[in-house]
Amino acid sequence: MGAHAHPEHPHRYTLSAPALPTSPRLCRDFVRGIFAASGLPQLAEAAALCTSELVTNVHRHGKGDVRMAATVQHDRVRVTVHDDSPELPSPRRAANDETNGRGLFLVTALSDICGMTLDESTEGTGKAVWFEFNVPPTHTKSHA
Fold it and tell me: How far is the C-alpha of 45 from the C-alpha of 7, rounded, in Å?
């Protein structure tokens, strides 16, 4: 009896990381591992890239620790990055000589859906930026 890769009940993974230059890499590896372990290695790189962009954004503009959550469901995987700054990043067109400002465009392009919410739970002092990848239908047992 093989383990069912995509749970009917969501599996939730969380990670807290200090706002350090090494955090984007740690968070990226964490997400890559979750996608690979969930039987979605083909989405792992794109998800890792999105995660890296969001965490780098927090590191650059946020306050406090980076808190990350990944929720694996049978039809999609959602990754959320929280920080303690209420400032919403604005996806703006980056000039050719700018290294920042591209992040959210990249996330929008790679993920199936993404968004942003202010955290009411922290008296509105923080925010969560999230993205989702749909699980390809080939993963639901196909009758060949």
Answer: 22
